[in-house]
Amino acid sequence: MNKVRVAIIGAGSISESHLNAYQNNPNAEIVAICDLNEERAKTVAQKYGAQKTYTDYQALLADPDVDAVSICTWNNLHAETSIAAVRAGKHVLVEKPLCRTVEEAHQIQQAVRESKAILQVGYVRRHDPNVELLQNFINNDEFGNLYYAKASILRRLGNPGGWFADKERSGGGPLIDIGVHVIDLCWFMMGKPKVKSVTGNVYQKLGNRAHIRNFSFYKAADYDSSKNTVEDMANALIRFENGASLMVDVSFSLHAKEDESTVKIFGEKGGFEIDPALFIVTEKHDTILNIQPQTDHKGFQFVAAFQNEINNFIENIQQGKEPNSPVEDGVEMMRMLNAIYESAEKGVEIIL
To answer: Which run of H or of E encompasses 313?
Structure first.
């Protein structure tokens, strides 16, 4: 097969994970880099051997030498860039979240349906080797009906600032940035049940806490402590039509002893933990068993997950296969996220 000629739109920090994975895939060729910052685009292009650079994504999409794009821009550009890309006949891998609103999600979905292009949403946690391992157990009915999930990503001091802290560009704070990962992961592993209702709360109490000293944290390239319009923390209870439920809480800033990342899913015949480490609980012969699978890595394998995601994207293009994270999943996720924000604003349960 011919190599898939790939371009990156948005050369910020997350693009490096895409670029490294494309570089390691023998069926992909990095041909162009696009970024508003021309110097950064050229620097990245030189590092990864791309022959072309652009500052205008429309010009890149008009390039016949580009077959597919990874969209790694600010969230507020995901919708317009994805729509333009599929209309230009380019296959698309768009970073999570798909966009900022349900309306934008439906617009993307319509554009994909009208094109012959593949659009894959960047739910990288689905491609983690440990998740793939657990999926085999699920497919063989080891856990029975999965009816309850609980997920937390709590950062005590983890507001990156920059566009992450600007609601206009990001669409929200920790809920739409990191919460989307664990909500999607639980929903996906529970079989993607249809959402029935959402109750949510968001809090904007602590701000970005730029005054804190003696404790370092990640800062975005355009960090500006004076700009912060997103929530510090969010929590939600999501109910599904099949009776299952998901409880989630996430934060950028919280008076907590330490950061916390947990993902647990419970079924009728057994349960499992994904974060912080792979673990299975079941029962055999009237005895409860705590099982620790023997794997090379107990927790989330960031590099391997991105490699699997990119490999899957390239394979889907070459073989004309439907991605395991299609645009429809992105639409459903935006319905959940937006409903949490709406519930918090109105102080009521949102029926979907």
So the answer is: helix 302-319
Confirm if 120 and 69 have CB atoms less than 8 A apart.
Answer: no
320 in helix, strand or coil? coil
E strands, 145-223, where?
146-154, 195-203
Tens of pLDDT along 62-121? 999 999 999 999 999 999 999 999 999 999 999 999 999 999 999 999 999 999 999 999
Alpha carbon distances (Å) from 38 to 72, 149, 154: 16, 44, 36
Fill in the DSSP letter of residue 253: B
- Provide CB contacts within 8 A for 234, sequence distance 6+: 173, 174, 175, 179, 200, 201, 202, 203, 249, 250, 251, 340, 344
Cβ proximity of 35 and 11 under 8 Å: yes
Kindly list the distances between the CA atom of residue 192 and the CA atoms of 146, 329, 348, in Å, as whole numbers in the listed order.
Answer: 11, 8, 24
- Run of H or E including 86: helix 78-87
Judge whether 23 and 57 are in contact, CB under 8 Å.
no
Q: In the chain, what percentage of residues exceed pLDDT 90?
A: 96
- At 221 the pLDDT is 81
d(CA 72, CA 6): 13
69 backbone dihedrals φ, ψ, rounded to 5°:
-135, 145
Asked if 168 and 176 touch (Cβ cutoff 8 Å), the reply is: no
Strands (E), the chain: 4-9, 28-34, 52-54, 68-71, 91-95, 119-122, 146-154, 195-203, 233-240, 245-251, 260-267, 270-275, 279-284, 287-291, 350-351
Q: Which residues are CB-contacts of 118 (< 8 A; sequence separation ≥ 6)?
A: 91, 92, 313, 316, 317, 322, 323
Which residues fall within 8 angstroms of residue 194, CB to CB, at 6 or more apart? 240, 241, 242
Sheet holding 195-203, edge to edge: 287-291, 279-284, 270-275, 260-267, 146-154, 245-251, 233-240, 195-203, 350-351
